[in-house]
Amino acid sequence: MSASLRDFIVDEVGVGLFAVDRQMNLLLWNRYMANHSGRTADQVLGHNLFEVFPELPRKWLEKKIQSVFILKNFAFTSWEQRPWLFQFDHNRPITGGIDYMQQNCTFMPMKGENGEVETVCVVLFDVTDAAIYQRMLKDAMRRVEEASNRDGLTGIFNRRYIEHALTTEIKRVKRYGGSLALTLFDLDHFKKVNDTYGHLGGDEVLKEVSQRVAANLRETDILGRYGGEEFMIIMPATDQEQAYQVAERLRELVAAEPVIFGEINIPATTSMGLTLQADHHESAADLIHEADLALYYSKRNGRNLVTCYDPAVHKEI
Ligand SMILES: Nc1nc2c(ncn2[C@@H]2O[C@H](COP(=O)(O)OP(=O)(O)OP(=O)(O)O)[C@@H](O)[C@H]2O)c(=O)[nH]1
Fold first, then answer.
1. In this predicted complex, what is the ipTM?
2. Which of 43, 208, 241, 317 is 20 to 30 A from 68 (CA-CA)?
3. How far is the CA of 166 from the centre of ligand 1 (A)?
C-alpha cells in the first residue's frame, strides 16, 4: 500500500485515530481527531498527550495505555463505563440529556521488529446514537413499567400493584417482625352519586378522594385503587391505634369538604375497615378478608365510619 493511500485512509476513515509512544508523545493524529478537538496534527504531533490535553483523565488513561505496552494485548473501553475520553461535541439535535459525544475506544498494540510494543494506537468510535437510543429505550421501559402499576383514572397504584405490595409487606413482617396495618375503604352510596351527578361527576369524586388521601399519608404508606370505588391503604410499621387515628383523619378529611365538580358541590363520605397483620394470617387474602369484614360493619352501622376488625365481634356474614 502506498504511503499516500494509507494517509488517505487514516484521514477519511470516519473514526478517531491517534497513537502514542511509551512517553505518551503523540505520533499519529488523524483528521477526525483534528476536526473534533480543534487541534491540527501539526500542533500536537511530537507533544505529550497529557500536556496538550490536560483535561484527559490522566491517571486512568495512562494506566490503560501502559497496560497495552506491557501485556501486548488489545484493550477496550465502552461508553457505558466511561461515556467519553475526549470532550467532543456530538452535534445531535435530540440528545436525550447526553452532553458530549459518547465514545467506545480500542487500544491496539503496534509491535516493532523486536516484538516489543513501540506504539499504542487508539481508535475512537462515536457511539452517541446508540447511547441516545439505549437511554430512550430505558426511559420508555421505565414509563411502561410505571404505567402498568397505576390506575388510569386516579393515578394511584392499581389493584395488581397493591396486591403485590401487600404480599411483599407481609413477607417482610413475617421475616423481620414489626407491625403492618391494612385499611380498605369504600365511597358511600356511590351508585347514587353516579345516578345524581353522572358518571363524570362520580369520576371526579374518585379522583379528588384519591388525591386527598394520598396527600395525607406517610411516604412509606401505599395507597391503591382496589376496585371500582374501593381503595386500599397498606401502612407498614403501624399499630392498631396509629392506623385507627390515620383512618379517622382520612374519613374526616373526605367528609369535611364536598368535591367540586364544575359548578356543583358533591358531598362524599367513606366507610373504612382496618385490620393488622398477625401470625395466623397465611396470605394477603386473609388480611384483606378481615379488613373487608370490618368495612362491611362500617356500612352496616351507618356509613362514614371506621371499624377495626375484632374477631369476637365481626363474624362471617
Ligand atoms: N363514576 C364511576 N363509578 C364507578 C366506577 N367504578 C365503579 N363505579 C360505580 O360505583 C358504584 C358502586 O355501587 P355499590 O357497589 O352499589 O355501592 P354504593 O352505591 O357505593 O353503596 P354502599 O357501598 O353500600 O355505600 C356502582 O354504581 C359503579 O358503577 C368508576 O370508575 N367511575
1. 0.92
2. 43
3. 24
